[in-house]
């Protein structure tokens, strides 16, 4: 089952134009799959290394990261990665709605999300 | 969000990863993966899986085991790499052929580079896998991160004896090889040197500790022998060219495969070995050194010389010294040539006298300088040419360096002042140019010639001597209207004024003024004459202020014939009516006259000196065959003896023989007698007799001039001492002498002894008194 977050379609934009914009896939351990741009995935240090072509591991070849978490946790990770990727470049004057982001994390998965975030170096 | 509001949902504990965790099993799996990574098989591995192994081990407090395990694996791998890629490539010591040897070295360096690349890439990958550990463990256990640990292991396992020594030797050999003119693979060397740069020990990078020092030592040895070799095989320009190309090649070496930080040290070695010990040897190489480069106008070589010498300690002073020597030698040659000619002139005074008539004949050839002035003109021209030459070198090759200019000037000054006749010759040169040189030159050219002359003038320290000569020459030019251009005269005057100040030229300007006033006075006199009967002789008078002009009144005024004295009286009457209280003294020796003489065949217009006119007038009343003896003429005219002889000579012995001398001969003797030459014939109507040509003085005249100058200097020193003492009231002896020397330096260099004598004279005359301490003086009002 494919769930598209945010991004509607998976059309690759200009291959050479920018590696940052190329699509990578993030799979959860229960069959959910998320397509995000590389620059979004790279907000996680672990995933950045995983996808690093210089490292040359299997994940870098296939451009698929497997996250050993449930879909609901993975989705929250992806949501946060999008949030971080979006706001890490904004000017100092703009308000960053950290509070809202926090409130969007359901308490029952907070611990899992925390551990996963630590693992993925977010 | 919505979940949060739904009340109190139960927080589920996260599921435990790898509940059946076994450190041993995990490590076995992970170490297998690490080996795979080291063997370039990362593509077959799942990052996530292995990352999780490491993560789990850290989580289960097995991080120390993990860290040590990884270190051991890396060390082991490095040893294997060394075995495979480096040790087999150690060049065999027996290879004699430099090319083969060089290739072997290159291979070894490449081997190291390969090992480094391999190590670097696997360490990067391991670093990624072990990132979780790196975040936790090193800080806790105070050990370096994986990457840094990797570098340390590389240092210990690869950069060790004997590998290290082989590498350093190989690099040095490659450099040596390139210095000898072969082409090497720079990128191989660069690869290895770069690795050395990356590796740090406690004492700095491996490059610094292992390579740089040896490299510099090696360079020093090489360039020491290179310097010897070049010295024995190359001429000066070639030597410098080689040195410069060495500079450039070392510079490119530094930038291409060594390190900019080695630059200054290496540069110093180059300077210390190639230049500093040989500065003066190279610059004064016979037949190719500075001197001959200047001779042959090798501006590029000279510029190179300057470039190389300037930054080196002692280089500039060596250059300046050699330049000075060169100029002094050339200047001495010029002086010797000039004095050689001049000396002959002075010694054989008879020879000069013999030349006398000839000179007068040639005198009419106005376009040529009078032969007497030739050595002077030649000398000044030579000095100017020399100056031009060095100026060009200075401008084109020495970047108009101020210090160099100062020593150039110093050198010129010293040799110009070594020429005893320098002031006189300079004035003669100007005289010559103002009299005849202006024709055919544009105003700008004249100006530039005079400008250059000013530079010579600047070098002369006895400016008062120059002034005296210049005054004499200027007086003659003005009186005889020999100056070609009034503008040029005034131009010269204003240049001198700029150079030496108002005081220096005030008298000269006074002379110009006199000429102008005399002209005005003459106009008025003529107008007055129109109203009454004029004397039979037309007269033109120049009234000269006695203090401005360098003529002294004759001891005894010659007896003027009636016809002349009548004219003089008429002018005197006119002049005294305008200016009361003035006295006019007639200087007949400076004048000249136009007259008409009738010979048997035809009549001619003669231009003669006033004295010659007076002599000729004596013959007017005589018959054609009547004689006058020398003593009769002398009695009748009372002209001074030397002047009389000169005039008679020019009338009777020169090209135009207006008088007959009995007996014939070139010299005038007191027993000679003279008659009017009625048979005189000449093709031209107007004849000019006896030109006063400016020529170098005879030794006797020179002595007189010098005595006069000495006398004048005494007064100047007196005046200067009194001026200073009046101001200071009390002053020490040395201080006073210094001050006097300083104040008079613009006119001449006073001799301290002379100053002392003048001080004593002033004490005698009670201007000053000696103080108790015997070392200082008081001014007495």
Overview of the molecule:
- The complex is a heterodimer of chains A (122) and B (781).
- In chain A, 41% of the residues lie in helices and 11% in strands.
- Chain A is built from six helices and three strands.
- Chain B folds into five domains: 23-201, 5 helical Cullin repeat like; 231-283; 317-500, no CATH class; 588-688, Ribosomal Protein S5, domain 2 (2-Layer Sandwich); 699-779, Orthogonal Bundle (Arc Repressor Mutant, subunit A), CATH 1.10.10.10.
- In chain B, the strands form four sheets. A three-stranded mixed sheet of chain B has the order 3-4-8. A three-stranded antiparallel sheet of chain B has the order 5-7-6.
- Residues 342-369 of chain B have low confidence and may be disordered.
- Chain A binds chain B through residues 45-46, 49-50, 52, 54-61, 65-68, 103-104, 106-112, 115, 119, 121, and chain B through 1, 3-4, 9-14, 17, 42-48, 51-52, 55, 121, 124-125, 128-129, 131-132, 135.
Question: What's the quick description here?
Answer:
The complex is a heterodimer of chains A (122) and B (781). Chain A is an alpha+beta fold.
